[in-house]
Amino acid sequence: MNKRKYIIDTDTASDDAVALVMALRSDLDILAITCTAGNLSLAKTTRNARLSCTFADTYTPPIYAGSDRPLVKTLVVGENVHGSDGLGDMFYPEPDIQLEKGHAVDAILEIARTHEDVGLITLGPLTNVAMAILLDPIAMRKITHIIAMGGQYRMTNGCTANAEFNIWVDGEAAKIVLESGIPITMVPLDVCYGEAEITAEDRAYLKNLKTARGDFFVDCNRHLLAYNQRSYNKDIISMPDPTAMAVAIDPSIVTGSVDVYTRIELRSPLSYGQLIYDFYDRHKKPANVRLITRIDAQKFKQLVFKCAEE
Ligand code: BDR
Ligand code: CA
Fold first, then answer.
1. Is residue 174 within 6 Å of ligand 1 at its C-beta?
2. Which of 11, 121, 249, 255 has the greatest CB tally within 10 Å of its CB?
3. Ligand 1 contact via 15 beta carbon (within 6 Å)
4. What are φ and ψ of residue 211, in 5° steps?
5. What is the DSSP letter of 119?
6. What are phi and psi of 92, to 5 degrees?
7. Is 17's C-beta closer than 6 angstroms to any atom of ligand 1?
8. Which of 9, 14, 15, 121 has the most ligand 1 atoms within 8 A of CB, as the residue to mutate?
9. Does ligand 1 come within 6 angstroms of the Cβ of 13?
10. Contact 308, 217 (CB under 8 A)
11. Which ligand is nearest to the CA of 239?
């Protein structure tokens, strides 16, 4: 059977790192990892993508550096959430894996032009993808679909009262992607919390595996754990990017979704980056987003655990 081919675009911090390891230990064929600034500066996200491939210990797709800032806004990073190195302030040693020459946006376009049946998984702000669409919308129409960790409908993760970080960091880029015509599956914050949260018991399970990856999954997220304890009084690691990756690896994890016409607010200082879902079909526009509303959280966790085994 042919493996499903994907490009992963990431602003690699601690939950992206787990997602990358999962992808490289799955049946997916990852053609490239393209990095953007977001959680961290571009220099740090590219370093962490290289480190994640070391921990995956399977194969290393070409890794490219891309946009170092959003299209319009000033970059706001999330080091307070993931640590100054983005990996729980573990300060892992410099990986041997090197970056590929060339820009991430060119790499995305080259793959879109020369391959068939390639999808995109996005784990960060959509700057690289939007740039690729602006440069060559026809080539990007060949991308079969985008699975994006992004957005929210009831909750937020603290950057504002009504927006999710990846979308909020570069709302202008999100607008370009939403209007691109590429089918989008959106994995919003709402399905990444609750039963999908990595509890103390789950962390003990991962640690008890006594594998490099089990340790990595927990340790690199220790700053995120402390952040959740401090900010929300919750003893959990939230794993948005691994949740989106799990949807790509095993689509049967999705147990609820709705196709919906989705826009983004960019002008209001109160609501910049908020996704607006037309659930009542008032605009009579075709749906541009398949919004995931429910997942099988136990299945998701089993997948995370499996990827941490030797
Ligand atoms: C998203 O923001 C980042 O902190 C995570 O890596 C994830 O991609 C969740 O809002
Ligand atoms: Ca991310």
1. no
2. 11
3. yes
4. -120, 160
5. E
6. -60, 150
7. no
8. 15
9. yes
10. yes
11. 1
Whether the CB of 241 sits within 6 Å of ligand 1:
yes
* 156 CA distance to ligand 1 middle (Å): 11
What atom of ligand 1 comes closest to residue 13's alpha carbon?
6
Measured in Å, residue 12 CA sits from the centre of ligand 1 at 9
Confidence (pLDDT) at 155:
81
Contact 86, 40 (CB under 8 A): yes
State the residue for tokens 């941490």: 308
CA 42/CA 11 separation, integer angstroms: 8
Tokens 């049967």, residue located = 252
DSSP state of 154: S
pLDDT digits (tens, 9 = 90+) for 169-213: 999 999 999 999 999 999 999 999 999 999 999 999 999 999 999
CA 241–ligand 2 middle distance (angstroms): 6
Average pLDDT over residues 238-256: 98
Q: Which two tokens stand for residue 90?
A: 């573990």
**Nearest CA, atom 10, ligand 1:** 165
Q: Is the pLDDT of residue 156 over 80?
A: no
Residue 171 gets the label, from left (phi > 0), alpha (psi -120 to 50) or beta, of: alpha
Average pLDDT over the chain reads 96
Alpha carbons 170 and 167: distance in angstroms, whole number = 6
User: pLDDT, tens digit, for every residue of 134-150?
Assistant: 999 999 999 999 999 99
List the structure tokens of 85.
Answer: 């190195």
DSSP H helical segments within the chain, as ranges? 14-24, 42-56, 79-82, 104-114, 127-135, 137-140, 165-169, 171-178, 200-208, 212-219, 222-232, 240-249, 297-308
Q: Is the pTM here over 0.90, yes or no?
A: yes
